[in-house]
Write a structure and sequence with these properties.
Layout lengths: L2 H14 L4 H6 L17 H13 L13 H5 L2 H4 L4 H20 L5 E6 L5 E5 L8 E2 L4 E2 H7 L22 H7 L1 E10 L2 E8 L2 E2 L4 E5 L6 E8 L11 H14 L4 E6 L6 E5 L5 H8 L11 E7 L2 E9 L6 E6 L2 E2 L5 H20 L11 H4 L3 E9 L15 H21 L1 H28 L26 E6 L1 H10 L5 E6 L11 H4 L3 H10 L16 E5 L4 H17 L1 H5 L3 E4 L4 E5 L2 E5 L2 H11 L6 E4 L8 H9 L6 E3 L5 H12 L3 H11 L9
């Protein structure tokens, strides 16, 4: 395939909105290529010839050596995960982590992060400052080496840091490599040092630009991300705020300030928590009713590690266990989480039997003992072993034993000293066990054995003909009328339609047994095929994309959040692995003569009206329901992969999502009312 053909094919993929690139190219229009031939339909003989040609030309001259920070710019995804918004914000995390390491070492008490009016980010701390002396072997200042060399830093056993999150030593140098420009200012030894870089290359050596007080120390990094690397350069204040607040909770007594100077008046918040992770748990439980008044807290030190655990049960039916290693959110868990869960189950079972509350023949499962639990587990270890640069899972085997011992001693002592609370807790876990057993039969009934055995269930499902899940998607459509239109307008090869009648059950307020009594929820579970909770098996998922398509009104928004609440609580991997989407039907249709234009937002409508002239004759139709569109309009605007717009639901901020679901769908109306009052000014139009 020529370069031009490849670029054309990539454009087809982007427009199609298909998640699977191969599937998108399979559905592309190949008439635009030379001869109208599918560029992927290459014969085995041709592939063999191409391979032979490559083999013959492979010699020393084909070896490419990437110098300095070139590997980072060549393959940025290997270092920061992606080049989208998530990767962009990872740059801030890497810089802030260096300041946090100074705090862990006991030298930094204040960190300030600012999004400047120019779009650049400034991170300042009052730590010791990056060393400014010359490294003889390199012939350069330590500042320049740290910011331009991979695996250069004070975190590799030299004694600079006992505990560090940025273990790989590529963090801040990666930020430099992926920035259009970066400036570093270091206050140290009564002098102010400065150096500037352009795409990872120093413009000139470190220089002294002024004087400061001998006791005034610290590092300031200012960087502007490179538009040659990133898909977006727009930093999100709320995303950054969430992470910085989290870091303040995890580092008791540390002050972290964030400001957004792009807006007027500027946003500015300060985070400082003397309670540390105890305050964290209190915040997580603020929208719930705690089972006990006080948060349980215990900590321990074992050789080269420190363990902190804060936990509190509430009357909800879901668990929230957040685990961190050296301030890094280990989203995939690891040995510290394994040790915590195993010890928790053993202690509650042992105490319950000893107190005569649990029968000797009975055993509470992990799900039983963690129902309604909110816990924060934070470990700090000298030599952490993470999986990959993004560090989402801890692998140190010693932490399993250390955390287990800490829980056994800390939580075990609490139960012995608080018999009344212990009894109430165990009765709650027994109630969870009974509910689990009651739900077992219902859960079994919803399992799908195979596609052929369930051709009549659910009755309203209009399935697609393609049976390869990678190619398939299912629309969850509000109402039978819109569902009928969607069935007529869809591409039945890869699009399935499941109409939803009415609002589904609010799963935030009930246990699993009650959830599985809902016909709508059972229809979804059977249609998806992958099961829920512990039974979830992604290999059995029948559709790669699950698309929520509801009306653009208040009822539609309510149905959408009910669906998302169900996915978040019972099928979270669907969201974590990028299978859940929200369809974006148009809000308006503007007709001027024979020209029709669909607008998906008020801003888009106003821009179009300005373009055609507001004094000219035109008609505007406001769509309040999917049923107002015929099958051709629904296909063209909302279902055609070449023209539709969809929002992917992500777990970018799971903590905030958990709190929001609890607040909006939970049992505390006072907090919900307060939220509505505080955000009422954000509502531009309310359908009545």
């Amino acid at each position: 395939m020529s370069k031009k053909e490849k670029e054309t094919a990539e454009e087809v993929v982007k427009k199609s909105e298909y998640v699977d690139e191969e599937n998108a190219l399979d559905n592309a229009d190949y008439s635009q290529f030379e001869g109208g031939v599918d560029p992927l339909a290459v014969s085995t003989e041709q592939l063999s010839e191409d391979f032979e040609e490559v083999q013959h030309s492979y010699d020393a001259g084909d070896i490419q050596v990437l110098e300095g920070l070139e590997p980072v710019r060549k393959r940025p995804g290997m270092y920061i995960g992606s080049t989208d918004s998530r990767g962009l914000h990872h740059l801030v995390t890497e810089v802030v982590d260096n300041s946090i390491d100074e705090a862990l070492a006991g030298y930094c008490t204040h960190i300030k992060v600012e999004i400047l009016a120019t779009g650049a980010v400034r991170v300042e701390d009052n730590g010791r400052g990056i060393p400014t002396g010359i490294i003889d072997k390199e012939g350069k200042s330590a500042v320049e080496v740290v910011l331009t060399k991979l695996h250069a830093g004070g975190k590799f056993g030299s004694g600079g840091y006992k505990i560090s999150g940025g273990l790989h030593g590529v963090g801040v140098s990666c930020v430099n490599a992926l920035s259009e420009w970066m400036e570093a200012t270091v206050k140290q030894n009564g002098k102010i040092h400065y150096i500037r870089f352009s795409r990872g290359v120093a413009e000139k050596p470190l220089e002294v630009i002024g004087k400061c007080d001998e006791n005034d120390t610290g590092t300031t990094i200012v960087f502007y991300p490179d538009n040659q690397i990133f898909e977006t350069l727009e930093f999100n204040y709320d995303t950054m705020k969430s992470r910085l607040r989290e870091l303040a909770y995890l580092n008791k007594g540390l002050t972290i300030e964030i400001a957004d100077l792009r807006v007027e008046p500027e946003k500015r918040e300060v985070f400082h928590y003397e309670g540390g992770i105890v305050s964290f748990v209190e915040s997580l439980n603020k929208n719930k009713t705690p089972l006990f008044e006080n948060v349980i807290y215990y900590n321990a030190r074992y050789v080269d590690s420190e363990i902190e655990i804060a936990m509190q049960y509430n009357d909800s039916y879901s668990e929230t266990v957040l685990a961190f290693a050296n301030n890094i959110n280990t989203e995939e868990g690891g040995t510290h989480v394994d040790g915590f869960k195993a010890a928790l189950g053993k202690i509650i079972n042992d105490y319950g039997r000893k107190a005569g509350i649990i029968k000797e023949s009975d055993k509470l499962t992990g799900d039983d003992v963690r129902e309604g639990l909110t816990a924060v587990l934070s470990v700090k270890i000298a030599e952490p072993q993470f999986e990959g640069q993004t560090k989402t899972k801890l692998g140190n085997s010693t932490m399993r034993t250390a955390v287990s011992k800490c829980v056994s001693e800390g939580f075990g002592t609490y139960l012995e000293e608080h018999p009344k609370e212990a009894r109430e807790l165990i009765l709650k876990t027994i109630s969870a066990k009974n509910a689990r057993e009651a739900a077992r039969a219902a859960r079994e009934a919803t399992r799908r054995k195979s596609a052929l055995e369930n051709t009549t269930l659910p009755g309203k499902l209009a399935d697609c003909t393609d049976k390869d899940p990678k190619h398939c998607e299912i629309y969850l459509v509000e109402g039978d009328s819109a569902g009928g239109t969607a069935k007529e307008g869809r591409d039945r090869r890869f699009q399935a339609i499941l109409p939803l009648r009415g609002k589904i059950l609010n799963v935030e307020k009930v246990r699993l047994a009650r959830v599985l009594e809902s016909d709508v929820i059972k229809q979804m579970i059977v249609s998806f095929g992958c099961g829920i909770n512990a039974d979830y098996d992604e290999s059995k998922l029948r559709y790669d994309r699950i698309i929520c398509m509801t009306d653009a009104d208040v009822d539609g928004s309510h149905i959408r959040i009910l669906l998302l609440t169900f996915f978040f609580r019972y099928m979270k991997p669907l969201i974590e692995n990028g299978h859940v989407y929200i369809a974006q039907p148009p809000l308006y249709k503007v007709t001027k003569g024979k020209t029709e234009k669909y607008c998906y937002s008020d801003d888009e409508l106003n821009a179009y009206l300005d373009e055609i002239g507001r004094k000219n004759g035109y008609d505007i139709q406001r769509y309040k329901g999917l049923g107002e569109m015929d099958k051709e309009q629904l296909w063209e605007t909302t279902m055609d992969p070449k023209t539709r717009t969809m929002l992917k639901v992500t777990m970018e901020d799971a903590i905030s999502a958990d709190q929001t679901f609890t607040l909006l769908m939970g049992e505390v109306p006072e907090l919900r009312r307060q939220f509505i009052e505080e955000n009422a000014d954000l509502v531009k139009e309310l359908d009545i």
